[in-house]
Amino acid sequence: MTRQVRNYVGGGWVDTSGDDGEPIVNPATSDTLAELTYSSSADVDRAVDAGNEAFESWQNRAVEERIQPLFRFKQLLEEHQEELAETIVTEHGKTKQEAMGELRRGIENVEVACGIPSMMQGGHLPNAAPGIDETAIRKPLGTFVAVTPFNFPGMIPLWFLPYAVATGNAFVLKPSERDPLVSQRMFELLDEAGFPDGVVNLVNGSADTVTDLITHEGVAGVSFVGSTPVAKHIYETTAAAGKRVQAQGGAKNHVIVSDSADIKFSVEKTLSSACACAGERCLANDVVLVQKSIYEEFAEELIKQADEMTVGYGLNDVDMGALITPEHESRVREYIDGALQDGATLLRDGRDVSVDGYPDGNFLGPTVLGNVEEEFDISQDEVFGPVVALARYDSFENAIARLNRSEFGNAASLFTERGAEASTFRQNTEAGNLAVNAGTAAPMAFFHFGGRKASFFGDLHAQADDMIRFYTDETIYIERWPSA
Ligand code: NAD
């Protein structure tokens, strides 16, 4: 019998009861792994009610008590990391090494949240006014929801869950309907970690489920990560419903390679940034602006290194896995075709890749396009595939200006040996995450993570101290004792 994806509500597993659903399919083999029936409005009510009921007592538990299940959860994640990684590979398509890596970044967030007793402290000022002491007290707010995307199904829920519950809130996760199985396993581990019933809840579904959650009167706030149009919609709808909201959107990241850079090193980092997770990353640097004097040499080295990459089933020893669905693979192919029609040069074609033993996988090899002009769609839109678009630049200022004209502002990288260029880049680039001589500007869990412009809607970002502020409200308390 096909496995059914279930909800975890009020400390137990329950079936979903919607009218519609979809299969969970292995992107490398096309095998059906499970069936997902979307949650109905009643299922959503049940999860939010369970959260709010649990919140009544959870918020008043001593903070030391609240972090004990998180310590256990961290230990369980470590013990089960391989198994969780394999689940991610089978439902998402990335390589096992990539899946292990995303889980590591997720676990780091659990570790940071275990420091809530220090991080959640408010301020206190004796004699703020004559004879008056003033204190800022951080208080949790209720039940928070996180709606997450398909591309990091193990890591992204952990940008939110540990901080939400450590600060004393209850939590509902709505993972991507494309790859919900790793969340199933993580919630089994959360159950084992020993949270009181209803503190952590899992609701499966699609867009309608999200609408029910973000407009629910019992929900205090919403974190969203996904594509820009949906992020904008979530931001507007949740704010209109009077709730806190942070919504991370899509990206179009650029890398600038100056003629002072080490070419081999910058190619290696650029290629892995663009093609890791088959390009399905919001931090993928896929538009590469190369100073014109080294353009040919850079392109040649890029093709050479791309030729060495192996593509296949992520559980085997390969460099790159499959794309999430056949529809998405077709979309990426259309972007390549469109760029060629626009006038780009095909420097390396990944479209004819075939993987022995996996004829039904959604595979695409690394593709390199040259002479990609700014106005081409492939320069403007998020492609989310293993495609590197190269362009020449003459002056550094022009390269920064092209990068800044992108509607997105998630991340950017610069390869250079010149301090002055690094300084200008740091000061003038309009993106939330910047890297010099590194391909991926990924912050550690103790720094916040968020983009700018169409890559982010809100003010407080994911991870670290921004999450503490998002999940708490500061009550100001003043005290006077005239007889003292
Ligand atoms: P998506 O926007 O299609 O889906 C994300 C979530 O939103 C899913 O849980 C889905 O069920 C829900 N959803 C989809 N349509 C909806 C609608 N109309 N109303 C309400 N909810 C809806 O994104 P995806 O394809 O799963 O993920 C890829 C996107 O996520 C890319 O654009 C990528 O850049 C972005 N992303 C951004 C970051 C970041 O930190 N900025 C991180 C990872 C991924």
| CATH fold field value of the largest domain | Aldehyde Dehydrogenase, Chain A, domain 1
Structural class: alpha/beta
Number of individual domains: 2
CATH architecture of the largest domain: 3-Layer(aba) Sandwich
pLDDT < 50 runs, ≥5 residues? none
Query: What characterizes the major β-sheet?
Result: 7 strands, mixed
Count of extended strands: 22
Strand portion: 15-25%
User: What's the overall geometry?
Assistant: globular
Distance between the termini: 73 Å
CATH class of the largest domain: Alpha Beta
- What ligands does this structure carry? nicotinamide-adenine-dinucleotide
Our Rg estimate from Cα atoms comes to: 24 Å
Q: Would you identify the CATH H-level superfamily of the largest domain?
A: Aldehyde Dehydrogenase, Chain A, domain 1
Main-sheet strand order equals 14-15-16-13-12-18-19
Summarize model confidence as the mean pLDDT: 98
Helix content: 25-40%
Number of helices: 16
